[in-house]
Amino acid sequence: MKSIALVPVFAVFCLAAVIFAQDPPKEPAKTTKLDFKKDIIPIVKANCISCHNKDKAEHNVMFPDNMTEEDAVKNARMWRNSAREVKKGAMPPKNNGTMGDKDRAKFVEWVEAKVPRPARRPGGEPPKTTGGGH
Ligand code: HEC
Q1: Looking at per-residue confidence, does 85 or 21 come out higher?
Q2: Which of 14, 99, 111, 114 could cysteine-pair with 47, CB 3.0–4.6 Å?
Q3: What is the spatial distance between Cα 72 and Cα 36, in angstroms, rounded to a whole number?
Q4: How far apart are CA 79 and CA 22, in angstroms?
Q5: Could you tell me if the CB of 52 is within 6 A of ligand 1?
């Protein structure tokens, strides 16, 4: 009896289960329950639009009357700058109205959750801060 020692090839493929530590997300995934139309537009209208509108766009910052969430995402740089200014209390200017801390926090929360941080353009064109006019 010819027995071929069929050596079972225990191909021990070392499933090198090297689980690569997953890259942490660039930014913590922030979420918000705030609604652009219901929560954010009224804040911008009450606190910003008098100086940043299509007729008077201080520093090239412009919030269109009919702004949408999509506009904000498209004009990420302007919105991110806005959140930064609001956060540090530079906008709205101190002598102009009072923006409550709650509204500040809401504005910043929404922008940080919904508006992607714009990519840096090293040595590229100067940043565009103009809002999206239609
Ligand atoms: C009373 C008028 C007025 C109001 C109200 C106002 N701004 Fe401004 N804003 C200005 C002026 C003037 C400048 C440019 C000079 C400066 O930086 O102070 C400016 C500049 C800015 C800039 C550009 C800053 C930079 O250095 O890049 C941003 C962003 C901005 N405003 C956002 C806002 C937001 C958001 C609000 C509402 C929460 C707001 N502003 C309310 C007058 C105003």
Answers
A1: 85
A2: 99
A3: 10
A4: 30
A5: yes
- Alpha-carbon gap, residue 62 to 32, rounded angstroms: 24
- Write out the two tokens for 10: 């225990």
Six token digits for residue 119? 């990519």
CB 89 within 8 A of CB 64: no
Give the number of the atom of ligand 1 that is nearest the alpha carbon of residue 47. Answer: 37
Q: Do residues 82 and 106 touch, judged by C-beta distance below 8 A? A: no
Q: Which two tokens stand for residue 12?
A: 């021990």
Is the separation of the CB atoms in 83 and 107 below 8 Å?
yes
**pLDDT one-digit tens code per residue, 13-22:** 434 455 567 6
CA 126 distance to own-chain centroid: 20
